[in-house]
Amino acid sequence: MSDEEHHFESKADAGASKTFPQQAGTIRKNGYIVIKNRACKVVEVSTSKTGKHGHAKCHFVAIDIFNGKKLEDIVPSSHNCDVPHVNRTDYQLIDISEDGFVSLLTESGGTKDDLKLPTDENLLTQIKDGFAEGKDLVVTVMSAMGEEQICALKDIGPNLMADSDPYAGIMVVVI
């Protein structure tokens, strides 16, 4: 036996895989697919008849979920395609910094400060205006394949902490 210590450096991700395989023939409209290494939402699927070489083909038309670009792919229906794990998480908006980063309140009570404001002009205006008016805003963050972006906004009413009464909105439960 040897007294040497061995150190192995792992380059693998400790978390779950960013995609999972799914047979092309089972992917439907409004589902997700990876095309050209981008997470996309399928907007149209058409399947051709079996050709002389034996494979029916699926033609996918999809929209990149982060930048809105249209992508297309043709895959034999019996082959596997990569499908991204897409998650949607709601966070309460705490602050917007000068450089366009947002500060979000996580469910565990911590903050998430690594997201920028969305590039979609309509959503960006709604977030900035609502925040300036002192409203309590909840943003929905979509994440897939290591990317995250704010994709939706909910107004949950006026910001109670902005009121002059420091005890407004505090409920005491006596057991």
What strand order characterises the main sheet?
9-8-7-10-11
Report the principal-axis shape.
elongated
CATH architecture of the largest domain: Beta Barrel
- Give the full name of the CATH homologous superfamily of the largest domain: Nucleic acid-binding proteins
Helix content estimate:
under 10%
Proportion of β residues?
Answer: over 45%
Order of helices and strands: EEEEEEEEEHEE
Tally the helices: 1
Q: Please compute the radius of gyration using only Cα atoms.
A: 23 Å
Please give the largest β-sheet: 5 strands, antiparallel
Description:
About 3% of the residues have low confidence. With 175 residues, the chain is mainly β. Helices cover 7% and strands 47% of the residues.
Q: Keywords for this structure?
A:
175 residues; mainly beta; SH3 type barrels; OB fold (Dihydrolipoamide Acetyltransferase, E2P); 2 domains; five-stranded antiparallel β-sheet; four-stranded antiparallel β-sheet; 1 helix; 7% helix; elongated
Give me a quick take on this structure.
By secondary structure, the chain is mainly beta.
Q: Would you spell out the secondary-structure blueprint of this structure?
A:
Blueprint: E1 19-23, E2 32-35, E3 38-47, E4 57-64, E5 70-76, E6 80-84, E7 87-96, E8 101-105, E9 111-116, H1 121-132, E10 135-144, E11 147-158
Antiparallel strand pairs: 1-6, 2-3, 3-4, 4-5, 7-8, 7-10, 8-9, 10-11
